[in-house]
Amino acid sequence: MRFFLSFCRILVGATFIISGLIKANDPLGFSYKLEEYFAASALGLPWLMPYAVPLAMLACLAEVVLGFAVLVGGKMKLATWSLLALTLFFGWLTAYTATCDPLAKYEVVVNGVKELRDVTCVTDCGCFGDAMKGSLGRPLTPWESFSKDMVLLVFVLPLFIFRKRIKFNTWGDDLALLPIAMLLLAFYCWVFTWWFPLLFSLVVLGGYLLVKRLTEEPKGQWITAAWVAAATVAFMWYVLVHQPVRDYRPYAVGKSIIEQKSQAKPPVNRTYVSYRNKTTGEVKEYLTTEPYPWDDPNFENVPNSTRVVEVEPGVASQVQDFILYNRDGEDMTEDVLNAPVPVLLVVAKTIGETRTSCQPAINALAEAAQKAGWQVYGLTSSAYDQTEEFRHANQNMFEYLTCDEITLKTMIRSNPGVVVMQEGTIRGKWSCHDVPSFAKAAKTLK
User: Fold this and answer.
1) What DSSP letter does each residue of 76-131 carry, written as one string?
2) Residues 360 and 214 in one domain
3) Is the pTM here over 0.90, yes or no?
């Protein structure tokens, strides 16, 4: 039993640490996923939307702290109850996601009148942020996520049932458990092509060993928990102020939007129609790519008889919604992507929420870029009138183009943020707090 419990501790601890740190690397992205769940058309909890960011950070913090707690045997009664609750909650959430009926309706009352509206199904639970798509090519399906949670529950339950047998680690326990846990974490890091979680864990465990040497129980357990929490919060604060340390999104530095658009493939379908022979009354189905009697006066089309069969599913591009329009509604996407000169994009996903503190630095960068012959555009999802008012108030001497809001907040986790693009490839990205000088922005070019 001791060896089995040790195995469970290593597996559960390392899994919770990697899961928590991947989401902590992009807490804004995780909060966007929570907002999808909170929507009135999903779980019906719109009052929680203003708290999406702190709730996302709290969930990330809980996963990381509980992962380390299991590995070092700290406060196991509290830790195992929390682990069980968190695993059951995520299991319920992934089951809800997997069983959501996209054809279902929900009822709302508008001005005293009942209306039926379409349910929104969240297709990706966000269990590992964008890491699955960025490293393995696709996210887990809802059923795969549910299966993962159920497998994890199998190893969480023994820890919960036999929690009284697990004590705060002795030095021998540390020597037996922690190296193997770090090897498993290193495997996860290799899968997700990101080694920071291993470095973070080694630093945190180094602090834990120092605390253990300098303090006595049970104070050492609480100080260890506080140390892990402080390190995790500091990491999340850093990425919120700046940008995710590891960018798995399709707009990461070095990614070509042109190339990703070209990888999209439309689905291959076969369309069938039915015609009735007016003489014999016989109804026959025809494939539209082959000859059929559409112009034969002796045949008539059978109403509502068209049938479409999907032969091959299409491949959607992750950047298919990167479409830019100017104030006149003209599509400027190709002009921006194929510009012969570098392009500076000032991304302000929603004007009403755009910070103004970095506008002087943005204006200075934009002016220098224009003098150097670069193209400079602002990108926003807001209406033209609101954008023009903001542009004049902040003396932005460049044109704003409109783009889908989800695309813009996927592109950069800052409002506003700055992106340098060259021949359709992202060369540099900076948050509002890190607006670069023109010289620094130009160094990103090839």
Assistant:
1) HHHHHHHHHHHHHHHHHHHHHHHH--TT-EEEEEETTEEEEEEPPP-S---TTTTH
2) no
3) no
